[in-house]
């Protein structure tokens, strides 16, 4: 199975690499963001401020809404206070791969 570089398959599901923009005009998933060095992440904007975890909660709520998965399925495992985050999602790798590609517009 091919893997996109904005996520990676793990033993329990996958890790999703996100670039977050808090304090935006609206909550939305923009597709793939690419850094100058070629790193790719799923770009997500949320209206919540980066204050006391509010933006993280909004990101998880948006991902849950867009994928149909429960909010409890998403865990931020790296970058809790940074724009660049890693989110772990347990489940069937093939199903999760299809969901992530749909989110990214691929």
What do you see in this structure?
This protein has 106 residues and is of the alpha+beta class. It has a single domain, classed as YggU-like (Conserved Hypothetical Protein Mth637, Chain: A, 2-Layer Sandwich), CATH 3.30.1200. Helices cover 25% and strands 34% of the residues. The protein contains two helices and six strands. Strands 1, 2, 3, 4, 5 and 6 form a six-stranded mixed beta sheet that branches. The chain is globular and about 35 Å long.
Average pLDDT figure: 93
The amount of helix comes to 10-25%
Give the SSE string.
Answer: EEEEHEEH
Count every helix, treating DSSP H or I runs of 4 or more residues as helices.
2
* Biggest β-sheet strands, sense, barrel: 6 strands, mixed
Quaternary assembly: single chain
User: Which geometry do the CA atoms define?
Assistant: globular
Summarize the entry for a quick read.
By secondary structure, the chain is an alpha+beta fold. The chain is 25% helix and 34% strand.
Keywords, separated by commas or semicolons:
single chain; 106 residues; alpha+beta; Conserved Hypothetical Protein Mth637, Chain: A; six-stranded mixed sheet; 6 strands; 34% strand
């Amino acid at each position: 199975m091919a893997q996109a570089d904005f996520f990676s398959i793990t033993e329990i599901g996958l890790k999703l690499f996100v670039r977050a923009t808090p304090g935006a005009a609206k909550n939305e998933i923009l597709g793939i963001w690419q850094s100058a060095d070629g790193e790719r992440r799923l770009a997500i904007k949320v209206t919540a401020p980066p204050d006391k975890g509010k933006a993280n909660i909004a990101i998880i709520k948006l991902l849950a809404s867009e994928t149909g998965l429960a909010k409890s399925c998403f865990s931020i495992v790296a970058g809790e206070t940074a724009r660049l985050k890693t989110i772990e999602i347990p489940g069937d790798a093939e199903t999760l791969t299809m969901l992530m590609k749909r989110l990214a517009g691929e």
